[in-house]
Amino acid sequence: MMLLAVLSGFLLAVAVPALCRLTGSYTGWVLALLPASLTAYFASLIPEIRGAEKLLFETPWMPGLGITLDIMVDGLSLTFALLISGIGTFIFIYAGAYLKGHKAIGRFYAIMLSFMASMLGLVLSDNLITVFVFWELTSITSYLLIGFNHEDAQARKYALQGLLVTAGGGLVLMAGLILLMLITGNASFSGLLASDLPIHEHPYYTAAVVCILIGSFTKSAQVPFHFWLPNAMVAPTPVSAYLHSATMVKAGIYLLARLNPSMAGDLLWSGSLLVFGAVTMLTGAYLAYSNTGIKKVLAYSTVMALGTLTMLVGVGTELAITAFVCFLVAHSLYKGALFMLAGALDHETGTKDITRMGGLRHNMPRTAVITGLAALSLAGLPPLFGFVAKELLLKSLLHAPLWQTGLLITAFLSSALLVAVAGLVLLKPFFGPIAKTPKSPREASFAMLVGPGVLALLALVFGVMPSLPADLVLDSAISAFSGSPVKTDLALWHGINVPLILSGASLLAGSFLVVAWHRVQPIMYAVNTAASRIGPEAGYFRFLEGLSQVAGWQTRLLQNGILGTYLLVLVVVTFSLAGYTLLTRNGLHLDFNFSDSYFYEWGIALLIVAATVFACTTRSRLGSVASLGAAGFGMALTFIHFSAPDLGITQLLVETLTVILLVLVLFRLPAFATLSSPWERYRDLTAAVFAGAVMTLVMLAVLDIQYFDSISSYFVENSYGLAFGKNIVNVILVDFRQLDTLGEVFVLGLAAIGVYAMVKLKAEDQYKP
Amino acid sequence: MKPNTLILHTAALAIMPLQLMFSVFLLLRGHDEPGGGFIGGLVAASAFVLYAFAFGAETTRKLLRVHPKDLLAAGLLFALASTVPALLSGQAMLTAHWWELPLPGGSHLKLSTVLIFDIGVYLAVLGTLMAFVISLMEVEK
Fold first, then answer.
1. What residue of B is the nearest CA neighbor of A653?
2. Range of the domain at B58
3. Of A540, A558, A576, which closes a domain?
4. Residue to substitute from B2, B32, B76, B134, interface A, most A β-carbons within 10 A
5. What value of ipTM does the predicted structure carry?
């Protein structure tokens, strides 16, 4: 049941094309039923995980590798699951209106559903490897969604950037998770949380921490990997609202929070989280303040929120965890709403630039009211839930065990900037003189407003009654961190204290920043443009450029199209390595013994040698092919002489067919010509003689030494008993070593397709439109 | 390439059926005597190659009726199908299954997944070589 709930998105995604034809423009509403019922299902689990309880649903997947599809539901994972499915419900409704009439809307729904399932899998899986699998699935679906408008070169470029950063980080994360498994001998979160091994002292510990941090930081857009997130805003707005603010970018945060109980108390872990989180928070807030595109502004404020969450995990006190959970929920609510509203504005006015909008409250009053609510929560004003979260944030930093002053100053500056951002997002588009926009705006449709409306309303309800969400899931989520039941007393009003004063001061500073924005923005724009030349994004592009240059260089060197070079490299490298191993491990075995050889054996050997020499020296193409065949026949004679009829027959047939194939090819080639210089021919001769010599030495060594007992006796004994066959060669091929043969048959097929494609598809076909 | 030599024509017509029969013979007896799917496939392929040399690629393609690619695909499917009985009965993949059918006259017909696999190898080898030869011959036009 639980597993089905997690994977249901994948199943429904398959049915989307049929559904789209059936339900037309109401598909969004129909599809929203799935996340809605998932929300209800997850909500029904709330009573069972109260306190620090957790539910474990076990499903084996690859038992041999210790990989399971186990699902662990505790307060933390359930909070995430509820956010994913709850916000997902409104996103589907919204997307139906936002992308109305788009020709690829079916594809969009299918990928969105797959994303939702991957994201649920990520937060609910108990197994580290399964988490990684879902982690990369979210990266891939995110790639497909950012590049949804794939005719647009920008969309493709930034989709690839997002993929390279997050999926690359995912690989680093996998290394970290595997190291963690090696340290603890445990592949599950539940086991990890239960164990009290001193993992800090393990020699792999530092490497594991660094890898896990890099993985989480790339996914959750921490400085210096933050650049991909604003660029991902080329995606359609439902994607930005869902993936790039409410859910996917929080995956890294989720993982950090999940692992924190095992890692906390270590300076490397907590210190990194504090430093990177604080820097990201401030950078995000500043960049949000200095941009004019509404989606970019929101994206940078998301970066700020992600930094805050990372920092709070780093602080790690119970108060900080409470702040973490509240901030997480508050941010998902208001940011999801704001993104959807930004999409509505873009949809109605035809521009994303807030400096070009104005006075929209006359034409879009409902949008204006909802934006107002969400923006107040963003700014952290009472009576919204954002205020509760901000109070807790400041309070927890006041009691932070490390670097309180620095963190507090950073947080204060960031929240002042964020107040300004909230003010700008609300004031610029909706107030002031009516501005001329590319499209004349009308009120957004119901489907586009219901989602943000409900989310903003929740932010208000939770703000007025913070005990409501706390009782439902927040307490359980906090308990999941500490391992024992926690009862919080969230309240809107705590009396006049330091956090409230700081909050008020940030409000004042923020208002000042709103007023000053006109004058400061152009300067900041110039500074940002200059800084972007040396920023991490420039580094990313330089890295890509370098990568393709290295790839080009080594391709020109190794794959220059001259088959002779390929052969030379292959032969020299292989035989040098083999010869080196042979000499260092075994020494020389020059034990020639011709005493028991017969004259016809000498005859066969002579035939092979003569045929080979002729093939090398003749000037006739046909002659050289035929003499190669003769050498092969000599081999076949050898096999038959040493009573291996199967090998002999095979060799004969293969040689015959090879000659025929070569003749077919040679007919189409020009006559032999001397293209190589004498030097090159001597070089090739040396390589050939060298390879032959090493091969001879290997054969002599094989006759002399035996490392393992031969298994032929096993085959001889069991061929009839186990496999009911008297022809041992065939029994080995089709029974004992059947898997090898199966693989070889497929290789054969691949070769056939390769030849077929090479011969049939002519080069000029590529350039046809 | 269509050499009009009477000797080759006559010989091909006479030898080719024998070769094909021999290839099936090799395939079927392969488990106990020298032979098997790989060798059988090679013999069958050389039969068709002989025919192609005598009568040209187009005629050979007609004689084959199916495209070499489809032969290859059928071979791969046979090879994969031979793994199914073991999977269905919950054994490790590729575990061999044997069925003995009594024939009139007291003898038994030994059928097995191994034989199915060998037929797959036979078809795959035949398909691959025919794909090579026919496509190379047709290029010359």
1. B42
2. 6-139
3. A558
4. B32
5. 0.87
